[in-house]
Specification:
The protein is an alpha+beta fold. Helix 1 links the parallel strand 1 and strand 2. The longest helix has 24 residues. The protein starts with a strand and ends in a 15-residue tail after the last strand. The protein has 16 helices and 27 strands.
């Protein structure tokens, strides 16, 4: 079976390994934006080839697909979806695993995702206001209290700014911080021209984050085990938001801090969003879909945002845990024949993934780019782990160079988090810089201490949302007091309006 994989990073390397391990004898071809050595190796070992071209240009992808004539095309990242690559391929008769442009609006436009949940009264929704004007956004956030300021478009999992505003004596300083947050968010999104709104302001909620991924053919939804991503750059969840510095998964379909009832509620939210999305855009959703969730005192399972593809590094976390033929699942989804399919997962194994990045990521990518790095693959495999090549490129001199983002993902598994964490720390030590430029990773990902803290935090919010459930107040947000006006409703309102960028 010939498979064309579109994408360039760690997520695609994980998918490449899942595809080439299939009993369907896959010959893998890859279309990547750069010469990723890991993807190149997977393709060549299967008898295929890696092509380098811009993956967001539909014409490039169609040209390679017509050359290869694959039985299945798998589109990994979100940006090719946003640019209509999936649509172009399907129009030319290819079977494609991936969301169409209109279906991927659920990720591309965070305003649309919020609108959809409010329009259909889907549980787990947050109050929000969206702005086209920077001046309007700046003026609003001055007095909005605890808020999250986001780009209204997906920008690679970055740009989120959480502002906790509880100290009155710091009000002037907080006003400046909020104004700057709105400005930087507006600046980050200004290079994109495919969404109408620029700045999204949401109510801030606290709790434990996790990701619920599914595979769907538009009618049948196949859930995958929950994963917890660690988006902050540094230990103890400090620092800038990144595309993900590591993740954990297991045991079974749950996480140590999410119970069966919360899992089932999460799946109901994901399924309803998928159903309503297809009604709204009037297209069938085929591909991966994920809810970035948080267990909060407001709702219990609460939607933070959605992905129209597998998470990165979330899919990497499943690499050592999937026991069934994953390529068969992808192929059946693309052909609309997913009903009855199953993904066998090891219930006894947990996994830990750690991303290794050059210093400078995520805020100074130019400084983080162009550094030669090496990895001892055999020693990592000797520990029972795998290494995935992410934002690295094969240079003309045969060496591997960083491209400014997360360079490698180290994937380890064991019967306990304590053991998986131990071997992951050893495995990371075999990724080294050749020019002395420092590399960093989060050593706390998967640690017993951090897992236990998540369990305690989940139990705290669990008591709150269960109490609200008994009182019939799930989802209700507090009122606020304004000088001269007294008690008023929440200033964050749902406008229930979304302007279709494709219309």
């Amino acid at each position: 079976m010939k498979v064309l994989l579109v994408g360039s990073g760690g997520r695609e390397h994980a998918l490449a390994k899942l595809i080439t391990s299939s009993q369907m004898s896959a010959k893998l071809y890859v279309l990547s934006d750069y010469a990723n050595p890991g993807l190149m190796r997977e393709a060549e070992l299967s008898g295929g080839k890696l092509f380098v071209a811009t993956t967001t240009f539909p014409e490039n992808v169609v040209k390679i697909a017509e050359l290869v004539s694959p039985d299945l095309v798998v589109v990994g990242p979100e940006e090719p979806q946003f640019h209509g690559v999936v649509d172009y391929l399907r129009e030319r008769g290819f079977y494609v695993f991936g969301a169409s442009r209109r279906c991927s609006s659920i990720e591309r436009s965070k305003v649309f995702a919020r609108y959809l949940m409010w329009k259909h009264s889907i549980p787990g929704r947050l109050y929000y206001v969206a702005f086209k004007s920077l001046d309007d956004a700046r003026e609003f956030v001055k007095y909005a209290g605890d808020v999250v300021v986001k780009p209204a478009r997906q920008v690679g999992g970055k740009g989120v700014r959480v502002i906790k505003d509880t100290k009155a004596f710091l009000s002037e300083a907080k006003h400046q911080v909020k104004s700057e947050a709105a400005f930087k968010t507006f600046e980050e999104i200004s290079k994109y021209g495919d969404v109408d709104y620029s700045v999204l302001v949401e109510q801030r909620v606290d709790g434990v984050e996790y990701t619920a991924q599914v595979v769907t053919d538009g009618s049948y939804v196949l859930p995958l085990p929950l994963v917890q991503d660690h988006p902050h750059a540094y230990e103890l969840d400090l620092g800038y938001e990144t595309g993900g510095m590591g993740c954990i998964s297991g045991p079974g379909h749950l996480l140590p801090f999410i119970d069966q009832g919360e899992y089932e509620t999460t799946q109901k939210i994901v399924r309803e969003v998928l159903e309503r999305l297809q009604e709204e855009v009037k297209e069938r959703y085929t591909g991966a879909f994920a809810g970035q969730m948080m267990l909060t005192g407001l709702w219990g399972p609460t939607a933070i945002e959605y992905y129209s593809r597998f998470g990165d590094p979330e899919i990497s976390c499943l690499l050592p845990r999937v026991e069934s033929d994953f390529l068969e699942v992808l192929d059946r989804a693309a052909r609309g024949a997913l009903s009855g399919a199953k993904v066998g997962v090891s219930d006894e194994v947990v996994s830990v993934v750690k991303a290794v990045a050059p210093v400078g990521y995520p805020v100074s990518r130019d400084e983080a780019r162009g550094h030669p790095v090496t990895v001892d693959v055999e020693k990592i495999r000797g520990l029972g782990c795998e290494v995935l090549y992410a934002s690295v490129e094969l240079g003309s001199d045969g060496r591997t160079y960083t491209k400014g983002s997360r360079a490698f993902e180290v994937v380890c598994s064991a019967s306990s988090y304590e053991e998986a964490h131990r071997v992951s720390e050893l495995a990371v030590s075999y990724v080294t810089s050749l020019d002395g430029w420092p590399l960093y990773h989060r050593s706390d990902v998967g640690s017993s201490e951090l897992v236990e803290e998540r369990i305690r935090e989940a139990e705290r919010v669990r008591r709150v949302y269960r109490s609200k459930h008994l009182r019939g107040t799930l989802g209700e947000f507090f009122t606020v007091w304004l000088p001269g006006r007294g008690v008023v409703g929440n200033p964050l309102l749902s406008p229930l309006r979304w302007e279709d960028e494709d219309s």
